Amino acid sequence: MNLVFVGIGGFLGGLCRFQLGKVMSQKFNAAFPIGTFIINITGAILLGMLTSVDAENRVYLLLGDGFLGAYTTFSTFMYEGFNLFQENEKLNAFVYILGTLIIGIIGYVCGYGIGKLF
Predict the structure, then answer these.
(1) Tell me: the pLDDT tens digits for 45-73?
(2) 38, 93 in Cβ contact below 8 A?
(3) Model pTM above 0.85
(4) Contact 28, 35 (CB under 8 A)
(5) Mean pLDDT, to the nearest integer, of 20-31?
(6) Environment class of 24 (CB within 10 Å of its CB; exposed 0-12, middle 13-18, buried 19+)
(7) Rounded CA gap, 74 and 40, in Å?
(8) Which of 55, 59, 71, 88 has a C-alpha 20 to 30 A away from that of 95?
(9) Of 38, 34, 37, 66, which Cα lies nearest the Cα of 50?
(10) Which of 1, 2, 11, 107 is nearest to 67 (CA)?
(11) How large is the average pLDDT for residues 31-41?
């Protein structure tokens, strides 16, 4: 049964990531991968909120492992960061990679704090 919760969450998270990434790419036609950046930061904030409320196991499987696991994307983050280096966009690559890591950690901590307020 746990696989069903993870599968449903993953399906919805993947669709959400795909659609949001598509919209962001069309809206911001930039060398900086803003879509993946925003998706990963919002995912970190939401995961912080989720882990702060001690969600029951099935809720965490659905939303944490499933939805947020598919919504955020480490592989695309690495791919886009590496491509920026290959395209001699070194400053953008450093800003993207370090910014995602630092702001992601800050986002998780902020999300955790927000979740504790509720």
Answers:
(1) 999 999 999 778 899 999 999 999 999 99
(2) no
(3) yes
(4) yes
(5) 86
(6) middle
(7) 8
(8) 71
(9) 66
(10) 11
(11) 91
pLDDT score at 56: 85
Q: Rounded to whole angstroms, how far apart are CA atoms 117 and 113?
A: 7
Judge contact between 66 and 83, C-beta under 8 A: no
Question: Are the CB atoms for 93 and 85 separated by under 8 Å?
Answer: yes
Fill in the amino acid letter for 62: L
Give the CA diameter of the chain. 48
Confidence band for 28, pLDDT divided at 50, 70 and 90:
confident
Residue type, 40: N
Residues ≥6 apart with Cβ < 8 Å to 22: 35
- Total H helices, total E strands in the chain: 6, 0
Reading the block at residue 12, the tokens are 């919805």
- Which two three-digit tokens encode residue 65? 């492992």
Tokens of 47: 């995961």
